Amino acid sequence: MLDEDQLEGEPELAIGERRREDGVTVARALHAGRVVPPGNLHVTRAKITAQSPSGGNGSISVSGDFSTPPAFDFPPPFTVRVQDGGSLDRSHVFTGCTSKAGRIRCRDSAADGQFKATVKPRRNSTTTKFKIGFRREAIGGPFTAPVTVTITHDAGVVRSDSIASCQPAGRGIKCREP
Predict the structure, then answer these.
(1) Overall pTM surpassing 0.70 (yes/no)
(2) Other Cβ atoms within 10 Å of 99 Cβ, number
C-alpha cells in the first residue's frame, strides 16, 4: 500500500481529482489514511450502443479488473460513472446488491434504465474482476474514444481508467485492449 511518503515528489491530487499521464487517466483518493495508487482500475473492454429511433434501448457495458487493497465491499453502495470523449456522461449508484463469499452481484431498476454489476475476486490473487452494464438507456451517438470508467466506493476510494483503442460498431463504439 502506498502512503504519503512514497508519493513524495509527485504532483498533488485532491480527492477524486484526475489527470492524464502517458495517455491514461489516473486518479488518487485518500481513504482512512490510505492512498489508492494511480491506475489501480484496468478497463479491458467497453461497448456503448446508441438507442434506436424507437428510443430508450441504448446500452453501456464495461469490464476489467483492479487490485486490492483497499477492499471492495458491499454495503455501502458504490457509484459507477462512464464517460466518452464526447458528450456521454452516465452514472449510477448501485444499492440493490448481494454479497456472498467475496462476490458482489447487483441489479437495480430506475426510471433511467436497468443496471447490473458483478464484482468478484480472482482466486489466489489480489486482483478483483468487474463487469458492469447499463441497459434501456436513452443515449444517442456519435460516441468517441476514450471511454473513461470511474468507480467510487467506501466514501471516497476512487478508481479510474480510460480505454482508447475503440472502433465504430453499428450504432456505437466497441473498445478492446489490444
Answers:
(1) yes
(2) 13
